[in-house]
Amino acid sequence: MTTPGSEVRTQGALEPPAVPCSSACREDPLRAAVTQHLKEFLGRRSLAIVRLDTDFADEVFDRLAWFVLEGGKRVRPVFAWWGWRAAGGADDGPEATAALRAASALELVQAFALFQDDVMDRSAVRRGRPAAHVEFANDHRSEGWFGDPDRYGESAALLAADLALVWAEDMFTEALRHMPDARERARGPWRAMHTEMVVGQFLDLRSQARSDEAESTPLRVNRLKTAAYSAERPLHLGAALADADEEVILALRRYGEAIGSAYQLRDDLLDLYGEPAQTGKAVGADLREGKRTLLLAVGLRRARERGDRKAVEVLDSAIGDPGLTDADVRTVADLLVALGAREAVEQRLGALLDEGTRSLADAPIAPVACEELRRRAHGAITRVT
Question: What are the start and end residues of every segment in region (Disordered) (predicted)?
Fold first, then answer.
């Protein structure tokens, strides 16, 4: 079997493969540099994989390599880079290259998280394509192998996720081999990020199992699963590499917590009010999977406060129903507008944006980084139309 990404293997470590990236990547030199670091790392790893087993190389490595190289917005490495620059890290030179290479390892952590998340949520689509576990299951079906294709697909995806996490640690450590002091400073946020991500994922899983309606629950899940992992800790990581003082680190972490939480609220809105081309998955996917978002929690509370039993029934029955039609999803979306839940979440999103940018105002952060972080916050957190 030949899968996208096999060119990483065939060209190997001596000549990084010419894997096409998105148009946004081509337009952004920083994102392109992250992709190049990942290509070089995966090219080196491919040689050892082929020696171990060619079937694994064909079926697992190629799929993981394609997923990492071709997809993703590189949000986490970019935040880590601007954490480095905010603390006075150089824009060029050997140390800057090492810092960006270490930050690029965050994309492997992201692959680990997404492969696992899609298995747990039984998400069929990721980035506009079948999710990894679905593709592995399709391999099983097409070959007519023994056993349950879905179980095989989930198991294979979890193994690919494990490999991505192991390699993230390798890439991070190897990138900083000539900067041992910086590496040790960055160990704290690197470890904390991993722990927070797992705890946040568990809380998300448990909230669905318990049908938790408390608005505090999605806020805590967002804080640990999204904000800390997507923005706060990457910024902290980059700043630690540059030996930032505590004032800079605290300002960056406050910014990251607020902006990362806003990211999640934006994604919650996109699930019901976005377009598949924008989100890479079907509208209402999170609703069908039973995700207990702040949007739904606010809607349920307001329906109960109004004594609107019909609205409560519609929302309760929709959450976690995989058989919802697109018309059913539109009904829920319209109901949340009527209840004022959408507007409440959009107002909170705007408040988080203001809070995040204000946190940068008085901190001794390099002006170029401060300007860039403000620009990225306003560019990424937009009203969903």
Answer: 1-20
Q: How many CB atoms lie within 10 A of CB 66?
A: 19
pTM for the structure as a whole: 0.90
Exposed/middle/buried for residue 274 (C-beta within 10 Å: 0-12, 13-18, 19+) = middle
Mean pLDDT lowest among 248-257, 274-283, 295-304? 274-283
CATH class, range 72-380: mainly alpha
3-state SS assignment for residue 358: helix
* pLDDT of 253: 97
Average pLDDT of the segment spanning 233-250: 97
Q: How far apart are CA 116 and CA 196, in angstroms?
A: 15
Residue 26 has pLDDT above 80, yes or no: no
What is the DSSP track for 93-149? SHHHHHHHHHHHTHHHHHHHHHHHHHHHHT--EETTEE-HHHHHHHHHHHHT-SS-H
Q: What residue ranges do the domains of the chain occupy?
A: 72-380
